């Protein structure tokens, strides 16, 4: 195992639906990921700084923000630019998720299959783009 790889990967989930956030959190914890969940974007950058996520799962439709604009914030800040992001949405599709110059590392439509979610997370953490 590489010296610099942490055993447990930190995943930050930003999703305003508590049921979905709880399900994602439970699934990821059962797979030995460390999960932190936010149900709005308000303290996102501060939270990223504290939690140091290896990856983020970001809902597009949040009560206080558009996830695509948050993605631009993440990508244009040198401290967070390289954090992989998986976007999830019930309303958007992979074709219309791109908004401006920034693309997520992957996209998953809701409702999603748990295995698809885990496959995409593993793939993105391994450097793949979907």
Automatic annotation (TrEMBL):
PTM annotation (4-aspartylphosphate): residues = 59
One Pfam family, please name it.
Response_reg
Q: Where is the Response regulatory domain?
A: 10-125
Q: Which SUPFAM superfamilies match?
A: CheY-like (SSF52172)
Q: Name one GO biological process term.
A: phosphorelay signal transduction system
Bilayer-crossing regions: none
Q: What protein am I looking at?
A: Response regulator
PROSITE patterns according to UniProt: RESPONSE_REGULATORY (PS50110)
Q: Keywords assigned by UniProt? A: Phosphoprotein
Extract the InterPro entries matched here.
Bact_response_regulator, CheY-like_superfamily, Sig_transdc_resp-reg_receiver
Species: Pedobacter planticolens
Keyword Phosphoprotein tagged: yes
Q: Which PANTHER family match?
A: RESPONSE REGULATORY DOMAIN-CONTAINING PROTEIN, STRESS RESPONSE REGULATOR PROTEIN 1
């Amino acid at each position: 195992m590489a010296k610099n790889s942490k055993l447990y990967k930190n995943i930050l989930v930003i999703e305003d639906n508590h049921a979905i956030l709880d399900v994602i959190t439970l699934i990821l914890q059962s797979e030995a990921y460390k999960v932190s969940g936010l149900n709005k974007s308000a303290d996102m950058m501060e939270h990223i700084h504290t939690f140091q996520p290896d990856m983020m799962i970001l809902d597009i439709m949040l009560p206080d923000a558009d996830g695509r604009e948050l993605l631009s914030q993440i990508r244009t800040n040198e401290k967070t630019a390289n954090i992989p992001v998986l976007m999830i949405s019930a309303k958007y599709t992979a074709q219309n998720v791109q908004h401006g110059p920034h693309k997520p590392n992957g996209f998953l439509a809701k409702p999603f299959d748990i295995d698809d979610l885990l496959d995409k997370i593993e793939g993105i953490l391994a450097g793949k783009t979907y």
